[in-house]
Structure formats: C-alpha cells, structure tokens
C-alpha cells in the first residue's frame, strides 16, 4: 500500500479499521428472522422503525436507495458542520472525534441524503491544510499534535516534517555528499568485469608459452 494514498486498497489496515465501524441505521421495512440484529428486539423479526447498528462493510454492499435501511449521519459530522460554516476547523481535535475522519466520511457520503457529509469533509480539509503546513514547519518531536490530527493528516504532517528537515539540512550543507547512483554503480561493475575478462584472454597459456631453447 502507498502510505500517502487517500484511497487505501482492499487489504490496507486503515481500510479494515474504517469498515469495521458501526453505523446507525433505521429499518424501513419489516425483515423476517432478522431480529438478532437488534439486541432489544422482542421478536425474531426486525420491525419497521427500529434502529440498528450495522458495520460499514455490510452497508457498502447495499444499494444507496435500498428499501431496507436508511443510514443516519453520525453525530461527529453534525458537530463539525457549525465549525465548517464559521471557518473555525483548525482548533478541532479530529483525532478524538474519529481517527479516520476523512476516510469514514468518504464511505458515508453516498448514503447521506442531505448531502452535507461530503461538503463537510472537503471544507474541513481545505481549511486545515494551510494550518497543517504551518505546524509541520515549526513543530518538533515533543510538540507532535497527535490528538488534533486524523490518520490522513498525521501522514501528511509526518511527510511535511521529513521534507522540511531534508530541505533545512540541504540549506545548511549538512547533506551535501554526492553519492553515485545505483545505475552508474552497476554499469561500472560491468565495465570492470569485462576488462578483467579481456585481460584474462590476453594472458592465456597459448600466448604466454615460451619458445624452446635450442
């Protein structure tokens, strides 16, 4: 997996964590023999109007406009909505709200009938990316903002700190050692090997055999 990718692949650990999350859903039609999904159900059937928590990986297999369940938007996105409107998202501790705030919202966006989750996710990142750039330039290991960042922001932050350190070292000439590239190194080894073979052929036993003395 590419650690900088916004869309992790099927086997990514981050993707597994996100899709294990439970999402509150409202039952739209009576489902026979599905009462086990609701711990508080009084019958074997799942009646209309009941609320159940289903894992995200299961919801993904359902159609957006399926007749069985309506996905309820989690409160974490409702709480961020006001901050987004006021352009005050930089002070929010996304890591505490949800460690995979953006990825979780991306999965929920197609099921949001009010179309607010997608805008919240986009606006939150847009407002925070400049702040993320600033703290990656000025932060140290001791001042790492662990709880303020979600997983994607943490990866961007670590990458920004690493890049800024490399750039600073380059300006201070701490990393000015020129290293031979691997391609050139391999080519040099082949030339040396070829030269040794040629030297071996020029000094073969037939050519170095001495004439008999008369």
From TrEMBL:
InterPro entries the UniProt entry points to: GINS_A, GINS_bundle-like_dom_sf, GINS_Psf3, GINS_Psf3_sf, PSF3_N
Main function: Required for correct functioning of the GINS complex, a complex that plays an essential role in the initiation of DNA replication, and progression of DNA replication forks. GINS complex is a core component of CDC45-MCM-GINS (CMG) helicase, the molecular machine that unwinds template DNA during replication, and around which the replisome is built.
PANTHER family, alphabetized: DNA REPLICATION COMPLEX GINS PROTEIN PSF3 (PTHR22768)
Coiled-coil annotated spans: none
Protein name: DNA replication complex GINS protein PSF3
GO terms under biological process: mitotic DNA replication initiation
Positions of region (Disordered): 189-214
GO cellular component, as recorded: GINS complex
Family recorded in the similarity comment: Belongs to the GINS3/PSF3 family.
CDD domains named among the record's database cross-references: GINS_A_psf3, GINS_B_Psf3
Species lineage: Eukaryota, Metazoa, Ecdysozoa, Arthropoda, Hexapoda
Superkingdom of origin organism: Eukaryota
């Amino acid at each position: 997996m590419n650690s900088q990718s916004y869309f992790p692949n099927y086997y990514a650990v981050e993707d597994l964590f996100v899709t294990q999350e439970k999402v509150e859903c409202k039952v739209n039609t009576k489902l026979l023999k599905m009462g086990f999904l609701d711990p508080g159900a009084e019958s074997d059937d799942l009646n209309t109007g009941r609320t159940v928590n289903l894992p995200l990986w299961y919801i993904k297999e359902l159609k957006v406009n399926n007749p069985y369940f309506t996905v309820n938007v989690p409160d974490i996105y409702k709480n961020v909505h006001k901050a987004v409107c006021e352009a005050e998202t930089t002070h929010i501790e996304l890591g505490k709200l949800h460690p995979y705030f953006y990825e979780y919202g991306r999965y929920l966006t197609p099921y949001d009938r009010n179309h607010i989750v997608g805008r919240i996710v986009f606006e939150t990142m847009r407002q925070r990316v400049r702040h993320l750039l600033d703290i990656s330039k000025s932060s140290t290991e001791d001042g790492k903002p662990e709880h303020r960042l979600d997983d994607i922001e943490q990866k961007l932050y670590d990458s920004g700190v690493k890049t800024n350190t490399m750039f600073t070292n380059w300006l201070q000439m701490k990393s000015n050692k020129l290293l031979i590239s691997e391609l050139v190194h391999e080519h040099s080894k082949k030339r040396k090997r070829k030269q040794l073979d040629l030297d071996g052929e020029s000094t073969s036993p037939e050519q170095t055999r001495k004439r008999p003395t008369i």
